[in-house]
Amino acid sequence: MANEFVVPAIVAVTLVTVGIGFYGLRLARTTSDFLVASRAISPTWNAAAIGGEYLSAASFLGIAGLVLKYGVDVLWYPVGFAAGYLALLLFVAAPLRRSGAFTLPDFCELRLGSRRLRILATAFVIFIGWLYLVPQLQGAGLTLATVAGSPYPVGALLVAAVVTANVALGGMRAITFVQAFQYWLKLTALAVPVIFLALQWQADGRPAVTPPDGPTFRVATTVVVEHRATLTLPDGDVREVRPGDELTFAAGDPVPDVSGVATDAGDWLLPSAAGDDDRGLFATYSLILATFLGTMGLPHVLVRFYTNPDGAAARRTTLVVLALVGVFYLLPTLYGVLGRIYTPQLLLSGQTDAVVVLLPGAALGEGLVGRLLAALVAAGAFAAFLSTSSGLLTSVAGVISTDVLGRGSVRGFRLATVIAGGVPTVLALHVSGLDVSQVVGLAFAVAASSFCPLLVLGIWWRGLTDVGATAGVMVGGGAAIGAVLVTVVGPPLSGWPATLTAQPAAWTVPLAFTVMVAVSMATRRRAPADVAATMLRLHTPETVRL
Amino acid sequence: MAKQLPDVGSGGAVPPPRRARIVLADITRQDSRAERTRAELAQQTQVGEALVRGLVRAQLALALRLSLVVAIGLGGLPWLFAIAPSLGRTTVAGVNLPWLLLGVASFPFLIGVGWAYVRLAERNEQDFTDLVQRPER
């Protein structure tokens, strides 16, 4: 049942991306145009570009999949992804723009004058960037496999190649136009189908999302299992399934309980309660902390702020971004909820990330409208992979070209782009078992435990020293990276150790702040002599001409 | 008019004065007190230092106050749902309250806080600018 509109839609998105990239290239005449878009982009354009860059595979596909699987507790993901921009607005946006730093390593050197800290920050930017790039490329591979039946490496390689070429040739100016276009495409690709889905739901007699007897199959369904799981059938039988198993259900059959999935209506519908689920509550708060504070430490987010003309514009841009992503995040939840009714088989197959792509076809049938909307959603998903990967690649290539290759030239930037794009592509081709949303969540945790304390204390506290900052980033960020490695490649854990490593932010963020403050106070004499001048530069409004 | 002016190069006629560019901002800048305050800021004198410290403190206090609003307004929710499970079962228009609060209401709330911050932070900066430009007031 291949949908003949999907491939043309994906090709169109890719061509438009490349096309706008080359249009931008024609406009980019100087190195300044190329790297920072000559710092002359209006707040609205810039905000749409930041929003377009930010809404990744995790936002477009992952949130709906998590809502389908786990229910109300994961609504903290969209809330936190949006709230991260509020934290950025409150503590970082205007001073960072006034500092004139283009990247996080720039900020370190400018504020603390330490080469060693600059190298450490560069390493963290590259680690976070690659940790975030791998799941984007994987999402592309899996989506193309789901909607067009292509082998997994095709989608990953396609996105990697398009993005690397576009960033290397078009640079930052082109990327701004591409990203802004992709924000609106992503919003449309979720908003238009949701109207049709809601009408269909009305026409079907408003079936209950959580029927008293648990979810049921609406039509006869054959499920191919993708992940190992334990099923509990309605008659009480327990059955182990492994990848490749086929299960057949008739219309009206109840969906069996799946291990690790909130199949039960109560678990799905209601938040975790105290007493019986303290670990759930800890994980929720840890997630809140990681997403609220992690956004400001993501390398591709910060690099954008430099394209604002001044600090006040940076602030207004951030507010518009907050509004744009807030509007977007209303939508994925609806897909997850409707997925409970129309695509319960994903709970069994384990491919919950595919719910956004499959829902239009499942709910509206294989008619013309259903196929067109499915193609629109697939195009939006590709916009998500392309835009976030472009932003990440631009920022990782930026630090590689200035800090590793040591050249600020356009040619150096192009070479850096190829390096920055090549490594995660190889990783994405070799590790295909990682969970998109989980890895993105870990990238937020690492950013929140390393760059967030560095930025917040660097901007607001005169007492920060280079030794304190280095120690804080090493201990806090190092602990978060350790947790990431244990979660991704370590042995399977259970109980508290599993919770503490899967959602580390609640202990690594306070740890980073504490170490940074304590060591800075112990090395008070190393505070930079020009701190007063730096503070003046960071906080003085542009209306006061010095 | 211009073509009726005498030829400057010939004879001993006094050359016309160079054309002076007058920009409104330059006139304001001639205010000597404001000039001095700006110089104090730039030269890190104690007065300038105190002015900047005041601005930084005001902006930080504003940011912390608004984060407290968010910490209580949003951060209190998981705890509230945990200690009062009946709240989770309350439905409004057929939807459970936690879904409405998190899935819908939280976004306008965040945008509202952000909007208030931008306004208040710009007001702080305006106060600072007024202080620097017109120190006598």
UniProtKB/TrEMBL annotation, chain A:
<keyword id="KW-0769">Symport</keyword>
<feature type="transmembrane region" description="Helical">
    <location>
        <begin position="183"/>
        <end position="203"/>
    </location>
</feature>
<feature type="transmembrane region" description="Helical">
    <location>
        <begin position="318"/>
        <end position="338"/>
    </location>
</feature>
<feature type="transmembrane region" description="Helical">
    <location>
        <begin position="505"/>
        <end position="523"/>
    </location>
</feature>
<feature type="transmembrane region" description="Helical">
    <location>
        <begin position="74"/>
        <end position="96"/>
    </location>
</feature>
<comment type="similarity">
    <text>Belongs to the sodium:solute symporter (SSF) (TC 2.A.21) family.</text>
</comment>
<protein>
    <submittedName>
        <fullName>Cation acetate symporter</fullName>
    </submittedName>
</protein>
<dbReference type="InterPro" id="IPR050277">
    <property type="entry name" value="Sodium:Solute_Symporter"/>
</dbReference>
<feature type="transmembrane region" description="Helical">
    <location>
        <begin position="372"/>
        <end position="400"/>
    </location>
</feature>
<feature type="transmembrane region" description="Helical">
    <location>
        <begin position="412"/>
        <end position="433"/>
    </location>
</feature>
<feature type="transmembrane region" description="Helical">
    <location>
        <begin position="439"/>
        <end position="461"/>
    </location>
</feature>
<keyword id="KW-1003">Cell membrane</keyword>
<feature type="transmembrane region" description="Helical">
    <location>
        <begin position="154"/>
        <end position="171"/>
    </location>
</feature>
<feature type="transmembrane region" description="Helical">
    <location>
        <begin position="282"/>
        <end position="306"/>
    </location>
</feature>
<feature type="transmembrane region" description="Helical">
    <location>
        <begin position="6"/>
        <end position="25"/>
    </location>
</feature>
<keyword id="KW-1133">Transmembrane helix</keyword>
<dbReference type="InterPro" id="IPR001734">
    <property type="entry name" value="Na/solute_symporter"/>
</dbReference>
<dbReference type="Pfam" id="PF00474">
    <property type="entry name" value="SSF"/>
</dbReference>
<feature type="transmembrane region" description="Helical">
    <location>
        <begin position="45"/>
        <end position="68"/>
    </location>
</feature>
<keyword id="KW-0472">Membrane</keyword>
<keyword id="KW-0812">Transmembrane</keyword>
<dbReference type="InterPro" id="IPR038377">
    <property type="entry name" value="Na/Glc_symporter_sf"/>
</dbReference>
<feature type="transmembrane region" description="Helical">
    <location>
        <begin position="117"/>
        <end position="134"/>
    </location>
</feature>
<keyword id="KW-0813">Transport</keyword>
<feature type="transmembrane region" description="Helical">
    <location>
        <begin position="473"/>
        <end position="493"/>
    </location>
</feature>
